[in-house]
Design goal:
Structural class: alpha/beta
Strand content: 5-15%
Shape: elongated
CATH architecture: 3-Layer(aba) Sandwich
Number of strands: 5
Largest sheet: 5 strands, parallel
CATH class: Alpha Beta
Oligomer: single chain
Radius of gyration: 39 Å
Helix content: 40-55%
CATH topology: Rossmann fold
Number of helices: 12
Strand order of the largest sheet: 2-3-1-4-5
Length: 345
């Protein structure tokens, strides 16, 4: 009886535990691995986002930090600019100051040669006769838009320099909308801090010869069927110089007087702007004028050179077909000195 009771008791306490399914264990392990993986990934992503935020916050703060203006006189402050082009980055030169200028002149006054001298400077970019295209000077709105693009360093031409340009401008003829819109342009110059560089010619008779000869070549195209306003070889210059224009002696004095009056008006209209007045003959004879110009633009001094070759040189008697008539017309007048003056370059 006792043995039966003991056997019964053993059966109660020796009940076998049922085996767990291998599939359930595997699922538990997989779930645990997934949870651990998600947790680890979330930690990594948080660390990456923190580093990214730090990098992108600190970098723009450096780039967008306002440029410190160099030590300059108070009167020069309006003429110091830090343009931000939309077409490229000025990179390490972003805080290099830039001066704005405009060469104001008349056709055949040496402005083409003068501009090549400026563009010979590493840090000066003069972009030619931008307003020779009529649509750009159709009204003050289009003029301002064109100038804004130029002075923001977004005007791309063969004269464009690198991002370290220190002076940027253009060549603007008086008859290209300049005189007609002079009041608004003067206001623009003074508001935007644009300096005017006047370049005129003292001997207006020689200028007239150049105007007539250039006009003739537009049709004749003496250089192998090609018209060239400027040349870079003595051979081409000699070919163009062979043409001798005939000048209307009756209208000559009136023509010279009109050019003088236009020049005087331009100087009067723009007298309130920051400006410098240069004459072609003075620049040719005295290269210190180029030193004065570079000082005016506040750029490093350089020895400026041009590859252009002068076309008309020597005695005027060899350049005018009706020389006798011209002599008679100017003798005894205020323009008589034009008959004798000569310059070489």
């Amino acid at each position: 009886m006792a043995d039966d009771l003991c056997s019964f008791t053993k059966d109660i306490f020796l009940v076998k535990v049922p085996k767990k399914s291998p599939l359930v264990l595997r699922m538990i392990v997989v779930m645990f691995a997934m949870v651990c993986g998600v947790y680890i990934c979330s930690i990594c992503l948080k660390q990456i986002s923190i580093r990214t935020k730090v990098g992108f916050v600190s970098f723009p703060e450096v780039i967008q930090k306002p440029c410190q203006k160099p030590d300059i006189e108070p009167g020069e402050v309006p003429y110091v600019h830090f343009p931000k082009p939309t077409t490229y980055s000025r990179a390490e030169c972003a805080c290099n100051p830039v001066r704005y200028f405009a060469i104001l002149s008349m056709q055949r006054s040496g402005s083409g040669w003068f501009e090549t001298l400026l563009n010979n400077h590493t840090n000066i970019s003069s972009n030619g006769e931008i307003f020779s295209v009529k649509v750009r000077r159709s009204n003050m709105s289009t003029i301002a838009e064109t100038l804004d693009r130029l002075y923001n360093l977004d005007w791309l031409s063969s004269a464009s320099k690198n991002e370290c340009t220190a002076a940027v401008g253009l060549k603007w003829m008086l008859n290209q909308g300049l005189m007609q819109n002079h009041e608004q342009i003067v206001e623009y110059f003074n508001t935007r801090g644009v300096a005017a560089i006047f370049l005129f010619r003292r001997n207006l008779l020689r200028r007239l010869i150049s105007v007539l000869a250039n006009s003739y070549d537009r049709e004749a195209k003496l250089l192998n069927g090609t018209h060239k306003s400027h040349v870079h070889s003595h051979h081409e210059a000699e070919i163009l110089a062979k043409y001798k224009p005939t000048i209307n002696a009756t209208l000559l004095i009136a023509n010279l007087r009109q050019v003088e009056e236009t020049t005087a008006k331009a100087l009067e209209y723009f007298k309130s702007t920051r400006h410098i007045i240069l004459y072609y003959e003075d620049v040719v004879k005295n290269r210190t004028k180029l030193i004065d110009l570079q000082d005016f633009l506040k750029v490093p001094q350089r020895d400026l050179k041009s590859r252009q070759v002068k076309i008309h040189k020597g005695s005027l008697s060899n350049q005018i077909e009706n020389w006798g008539d011209v002599q008679k017309a100017l003798k005894g007048t205020q323009y008589e000195s034009f008959l004798h003056a000569d310059i070489r370059r």
